[in-house]
Amino acid sequence: MKQQHPEETIDQGRRAWFGLAAGVTAAVAAPGVVLHLADAAPAVGTEGVPVTAAARWGLLIDTNKCLEGCRDCVDACARENGLDRQTKPAAQSSAAWADQRAVWLRKAKLADNLTGRVTNLPLMCQHCEHPPCVDVCPTGASFKRADGIVVVDRHVCIGCRYCMMACPYQARSFIHEAVHDQLTGVPRGKGCVESCNLCVSRRDHGLASTACVDACTAAGHGAIVFGDMKDPASPISLALKAMSSRQLREDLALNTGVRYAGL
Prior knowledge:
The chain is α+β, with helices and mostly antiparallel strands. It is about 20% helix and about 15% strand.
């Protein structure tokens, strides 16, 4: 599946695509393929305690604070997950590499064809409550943890890429080449699908933020807030109460864990 460029310009009039679009998106498995529901073992968090539904982790992105040309969150995500260590195969063209290299977080421009207003926003896995990628996965490799984080089990992924076709946000990448010089804490492998996991290794070690949030905060922008959406006293819950926000592709009723203000 073709991967969009990190600096993506969205055509005029695409705002409806992100909001209450009237179209219907469907994912269809190949003829003869039977999709089975797989019961994944509970994820294990800090000190071996299984992850529970007591929390639901999410992000709130204030697009009014997301600056033109800023890539701090994108670069931080790449460093955190070893994506900055990718190298272009010698025989591959630059255009093909731009399409195929793994990208977990990308910046997009959204233009309103009525007002001419241009909005910059980070795009990543939206960590849906009802994730289409999980619905179509034939092996259970794509699954949603009890705390709302959608992840891929690389030991179970067979590289069929049904999840990539099902994702309405084009948030997943496929690893086409052997991975070298990877981080031990973020294993990656050829033939697997991957995407933003809200820095899940940080969650499981009791850390309170994500790489993109840390980078955005350090740069002084403060455009991204992370936290427990079930905790009424958490920074993200307080921010969601204080400002109007929306989900991308609200028409799909996926109840995403990533919300956007200023759209």
